[in-house]
């Protein structure tokens, strides 16, 4: 059973009651309301925990700030007042980025159709359209259900027509990524409409832009997720195959990595995406043939101080080691010593311990000679230390 939910109005009324009936100051009234509902098992993640402005003199109930901003944007759109749009879009984007509760409240009160209209209104003004897309991206974060077919087409059209514009490409891909997280239907719709070549094309075209490469790689990875609990079977495997076979995805990602040898954020993202694409024996082998394994081993050695990178590289090594021939290549490249070193250096990090132990496990599977190398390199001791360090972490154990 999921947590109980309440409407924003219910919370606001409880806060107001604490102020009027029990003479609490506003901050105390909010704290008391939060405590009251949480003790009843209510999920308040989508609730704005702030005092709504007091009622006006005629008794009319006031709105939260984000809804007042949305009203101003709605008026500007309705009146086609282009001069007012930048200020209102900027204010709405800033408030949406603050927390999910603000985005949720705006979304429930018609923010998406207003923003879609703002995007249409801004179509001829590049800077204004960029701002509208950035605001749309902020609204869609955690709310993929808001995007409709017309919105999908608008994003695809922009990515096709403005593919040479790095900033527009980045804004569009961010919207796509937010719309596809935990939303299988959006993923399938975008893939059918041709998003995959647009994403790999963006990485090639803007290979010198860290933000575009990182975000496009992340969006490709999201297309291989199976994270929508409403859908019994997704197309994650099919999408991974399409990225590799139809869009040369492995080569695109490995080539992109060569331009960012000193950018741990980009490299971490590229490794994470490569691990999601290692779904077939021949794909694992192709990663080795393209130089991906050497890149990963070098990266692990050079970025041992960056936990995020270490975790993603270990995950990628674990994934490509699904191929028995690749297991030998990984061991021959000296990766086992680096994996043991990673576990030892980051013993307090449960995710690194989990991925490191899992990588050693896969390398040892059906390979007695690899077991000897791992034992001699201190792998068993590292695994024991990890178990002792994280007795309550099921995944590590």
From TrEMBL:
Signal peptide: none annotated. Keywords: Repeat. ARM repeats lie at residues 291-335. SUPFAM superfamilies: ARM repeat. InterPro entries: ARM-like, ARM-type_fold, Armadillo. GO terms for biological process: hematopoietic progenitor cell differentiation. It comes from the Eukaryota. PANTHER family: ARMADILLO REPEAT-CONTAINING PROTEIN 6 (PTHR22895). This is ARMC6 protein. It comes from Anthoscopus minutus.
């Amino acid at each position: 059973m999921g947590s109980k939910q309440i409407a924003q109005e219910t919370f606001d009324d409880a806060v107001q009651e604490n102020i009027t009936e029990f003479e609490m100051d506003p901050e105390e009234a909010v704290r008391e309301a939060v405590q009251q509902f949480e003790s009843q098992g209510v999920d308040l993640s989508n609730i704005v925990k702030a005092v709504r402005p007091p009622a006006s003199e005629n008794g009319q109930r006031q709105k939260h700030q984000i809804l007042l901003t949305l009203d101003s944007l709605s008026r500007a759109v309705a009146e086609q007042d282009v001069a007012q749009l930048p200020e209102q879009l900027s204010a709405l984007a800033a408030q949406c980025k603050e927390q999910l509760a603000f985005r949720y409240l705006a979304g429930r009160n018609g923010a998406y159709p207003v923003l879609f209209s703002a995007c249409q209104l801004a179509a001829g003004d590049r800077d204004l359209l960029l701002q509208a897309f950035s605001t749309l991206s902020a609204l869609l974060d955690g709310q993929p259900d808001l995007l409709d077919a017309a919105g999908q087409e608008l994003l695809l059209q922009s990515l096709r027509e403005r593919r040479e514009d790095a900033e527009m490409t980045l804004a569009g891909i961010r919207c796509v990524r937010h719309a596809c997280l935990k939303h299988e239907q959006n993923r399938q719709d975008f893939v059918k409409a041709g998003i995959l070549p647009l994403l790999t094309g963006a990485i090639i075209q803007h290979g010198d832009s860290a933000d575009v490469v990182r975000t496009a790689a992340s969006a490709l990875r999201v297309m291989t997720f199976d994270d929508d609990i409403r859908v019994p079977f997704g197309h994650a495997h099919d999408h991974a195959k399409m990225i590799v076979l139809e869009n040369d995805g492995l080569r695109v990602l490995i080539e992109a990595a060569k331009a960012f040898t000193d950018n741990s954020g980009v490299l971490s993202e590229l490794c994470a995406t490569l691990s999601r694409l290692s779904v077939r024996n021949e794909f694992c082998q192709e990663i080795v043939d393209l130089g991906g394994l050497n890149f990963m081993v070098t990266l692990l050695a050079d970025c041992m101080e960056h936990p995020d990178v270490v975790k993603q590289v270990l995950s990628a090594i674990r994934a490509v080691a699904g191929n028995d021939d690749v297991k030998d290549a990984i061991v021959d490249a000296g990766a086992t010593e680096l994996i043991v070193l990673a576990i030892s250096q980051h013993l307090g990090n449960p995710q690194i311990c989990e991925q490191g132990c899992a990588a050693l496990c896969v390398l040892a599977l059906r390979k007695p000679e690899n077991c000897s190398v791992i034992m001699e390199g201190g792998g068993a001791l590292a695994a024991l230390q990890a178990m002792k360090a994280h007795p309550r972490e099921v995944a590590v154990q």
